From TrEMBL:
CDD domains: FN3. GO terms for cellular component: plasma membrane. Pfam families: Interfer-bind, Tissue_fac. InterPro entries: FN3_dom, FN3_sf, Ig-like_fold, Interferon/interleukin_rcp_dom, Type-II_Cytokine-TF_Rcpt. This is INLR1 protein. One of its GO terms (molecular function) is cytokine receptor activity. It comes from Asarcornis scutulata.
Length: 203
């Protein structure tokens, strides 16, 4: 009988924080030195499985495929097999996903520059270089701490700075932002942790 390695389990293509990642768990009874190799195919060229150079004989149980994708507007899937010495497991395939439709966003990180009577706010996104050209946006909220009344600044291009006149604001104010992206409908991340600051304190 031909001895095979246990195949990887829970093979899942998932999007997290702007990336598309294949994840899996080791098959039950896998040897400690087990390594993995990943390939993918896209719906433009079915039955052509393409090697992923940075995920060949790797020991981790995930592979970032974001910048490997030839086309962000076409569904693709990936597969993974286990390797140990001369033994190999069968390939195990993921479901199909499409970056453009299935991408999940992360909250942006806010950079706030406080000057006299004005705030300059911009957002940075943890984006892979290959997806920087997409029209990522963000929404910004400003409110007085303890108040439910939020001033909203919506659909700001990722690289643009919001300038807020603070002349009339006194006390503790907070800012929070979320990433947004328009595919078929709008997608949003969760809001970022609030950044709070004291404005125009008479001292």
């Amino acid at each position: 009988g031909h001895i095979q390695l246990p195949p990887p389990q829970n093979v899942t293509l998932l999007s997290k924080d702007f990336d598309m990642i294949l994840t899996w768990t080791p098959g039950e009874g896998s040897p400690p030195d087990v390594a993995y190799t990943v390939r993918y195919e896209s719906q433009e060229r079915m039955d052509k499985w393409i090697k992923v150079r940075h995920c060949k004989n790797i020991h981790s149980t995930s592979c970032n495929l974001t910048c490997v994708l030839p086309n962000f507007f076409i569904k693709f899937r990936a597969r993974v097999k286990a390797i140990s010495g001369k033994l190999q497991s069968p390939w195990v395939e993921s479901q199909f996903k499409e970056y453009y439709l299935d991408v999940e966003l992360a909250p942006p990180v806010l950079n706030v520059n406080v000057q006299e009577n004005v705030l300059h706010v911009n957002a940075t996104f943890p984006l892979a270089t290959c997806v920087e050209s997409f029209s990522w946006m963000y929404d910004l909220n400003l409110w007085e701490a303890g108040s439910e009344d939020k001033k909203q600044y919506e659909s700001i291009f990722r690289k643009n700075t919001v300038t807020i006149d603070t002349t009339a604001l006194r006390g503790n104010y907070c800012l929070s932002a979320r990433s947004s992206f328009q595919s078929i409908g709008f997608k949003y991340s969760k809001f970022s942790q609030p950044v709070c600051m004291l404005l125009n304190r008479k001292g």
